[in-house]
């Protein structure tokens, strides 16, 4: 069979399903923006799209305007593929940036499985959740307008998929029957428990990727038996609770001699940026300066995949905080590594953590409660072991790669008429 994938950042959420299809003999073509990433056996078709926002367009419509331009470019590339006699049996792609809006004009009779990630709301979720860094009522029209692409995608031909119950529930009820729930799995062999992780020193300095920053960082090693708290916050921003983590440090470090390692970059993330040009890390470091022992808290930036996994395996308490928004991959991977996770008591986290069974929940805005949860964990060996064992058990039951790919293929098969996964392999061998 011929598969066409569409995502602006190759391979996006599709790496595992693309590999499965490729290894079973199917032809995979991937339409994307220019990138250095490659996959053996996958034909990557790049298109250049770098048009700036048109400042003459209403601010609330600028994302939509860019999306329509993207849709034109992508449809043009698809038309060229069609002229070269390529015809997909099914198209899979992400709806978020508008790439798929004109697919039906090129291949009106080809099934489409579109990735629906999130439906925006101007209150009650990531916007309006945090009064400290919230937006005013003037932002409501722009937030509503962000769903223009969603609405076109929902009313265009094709089926949809969504990775969590929370994300699916953000969409209007009238459209939810169009979207299949396909829970994304992870590599449970790569992300697994390592009981001996705490018995050897862990070199934090070696994780710093930039040589100049590494030299300035100084030598930091987590000794065997030393308590380590980890926090992964991809863009070091309030949306993932950086302010709560930082404000919990005085109460934690005053009562226990621990090290804290925070992973993430200072690049723009999901939420707003500061008007004065400072990053959120700089903002909160200034706020908290002098209130805790800074020699025990280490910002390591982005780290390699192997170092990230080793941190999770070594972690004595992993903190995951988020607004009511898309749950991060780091939460899934921490559970798979058997981390003792302290998570925010917000809807997307409750889908993964049951308090007292496979993790601990804490009120998002209560930094004192967060430090108490960490200390509670450190003082109760039975609870620590109980949470870790059940975290891994949860991952094996709900986050397995095999289960994810099986559900994914069943969804694809239903759209293309019951095809068998290995059918392409047999055809290739004829």
Number of domains: 2
The strands making up the biggest β-sheet line up spatially as 3-2-1-4-5-6-7
Largest sheet data: 7 strands, parallel
How many separate helices?
A: 17
What's the helical proportion of residues? 25-40%
Q: What is the radius of gyration?
A: 23 Å
**What would the principal axes of the Cα set say about the shape?**
globular
Relevant CATH superfamily of the largest domain = Glycogen Phosphorylase B
Which CATH C-level class of the largest domain is it?
A: Alpha Beta
Give the secondary structure arrangement, pairings included:
Blueprint: E1 2-6, H1 15-23, E2 27-32, E3 42-46, H2 62-83, E4 90-94, H3 103-106, E5 112-115, H4 140-145, H5 148-155, E6 159-162, H6 165-169, H7 173-176, E7 179-181, E8 202-203, H8 211-217, E9 221-222, E10 227-232, H9 242-253, E11 258-263, H10 280-288, E12 297-301, H11 305-314, E13 317-320, H12 329-336, E14 341-344, H13 347-350, E15 360-362, H14 367-379, H15 381-398, H16 401-416, H17 423-429
Parallel strand pairs: 1-2, 1-4, 2-3, 4-5, 5-6, 6-7, 10-11, 10-13, 11-12, 13-14, 14-15
Antiparallel strand pairs: 8-9
Helix pairs in contact: 9-10, 9-14, 12-15
């Amino acid at each position: 069979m011929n598969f066409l994938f569409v995502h602006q950042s190759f391979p996006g959420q599709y790496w595992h399903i693309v590999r499965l299809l490729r290894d079973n003999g199917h032809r995979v073509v991937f339409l994307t923006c220019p990138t250095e990433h490659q996959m053996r056996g996958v034909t990557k078709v790049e298109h250049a799209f770098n048009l700036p926002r048109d400042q003459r367009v209403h601010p609330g419509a600028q994302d939509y305007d860019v999306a329509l331009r993207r849709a034109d470019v992508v449809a043009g590339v698809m038309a060229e593929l069609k002229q070269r006699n390529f015809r997909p049996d099914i198209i899979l792609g992400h709806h978020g940036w508008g790439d798929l809006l004109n697919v039906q004009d090129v291949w009106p009779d080809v099934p489409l499985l579109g990735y629906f990630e999130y439906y925006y709301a101007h209150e009650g979720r990531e916007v309006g959740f945090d009064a400290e860094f919230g937006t005013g009522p003037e932002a409501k029209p722009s937030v509503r307008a962000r769903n223009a692409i969603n609405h076109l995608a929902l009313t265009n031909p094709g089926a949809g998929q969504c990775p969590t119950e929370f994300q699916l529930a953000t969409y209007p009820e009238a459209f939810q029957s169009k979207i299949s729930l396909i829970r994304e799995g992870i590599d449970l062999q790569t992300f697994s428990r390592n009981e001996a992780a705490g018995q050897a020193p862990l070199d934090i300095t070696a994780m710093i990727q930039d040589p100049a920053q590494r030299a300035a960082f100084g030598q930091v090693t987590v000794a065997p038996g030393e308590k380590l708290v980890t926090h992964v916050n991809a863009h070091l921003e309030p949306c993932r609770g950086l302010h709560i983590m930082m404000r919990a440090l005085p109460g934690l470090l005053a009562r226990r001699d621990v090290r804290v390692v925070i992973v993430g970059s200072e690049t723009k993330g999901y939420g707003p940026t500061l008007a004065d040009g400072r990053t959120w890390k700089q903002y909160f470091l200034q706020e908290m300066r002098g209130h805790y022992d800074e020699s025990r808290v280490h910002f390591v930036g982005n780290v390699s995949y192997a170092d990230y996994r080793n941190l999770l395996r070594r972690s004595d308490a992993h903190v995951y905080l988020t607004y009511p928004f898309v749950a991060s991959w780091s939460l899934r991977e921490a559970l798979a590594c058997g981390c003792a996770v302290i998570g925010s008591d917000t809807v997307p986290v409750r889908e993964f953590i049951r308090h007292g069974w496979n993790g601990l929940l804490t009120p998002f805005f209560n930094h004192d409660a967060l430090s108490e949860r960490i200390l509670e964990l450190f003082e109760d060996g039975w609870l620590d072991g109980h949470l870790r064992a059940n975290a891994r058990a949860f991952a094996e039951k709900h986050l397995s790669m095999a289960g994810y790919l099986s559900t994914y293929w069943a969804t694809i098969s239903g759209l293309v008429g019951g095809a068998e996964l290995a059918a392409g392999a047999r055809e290739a061998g004829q």
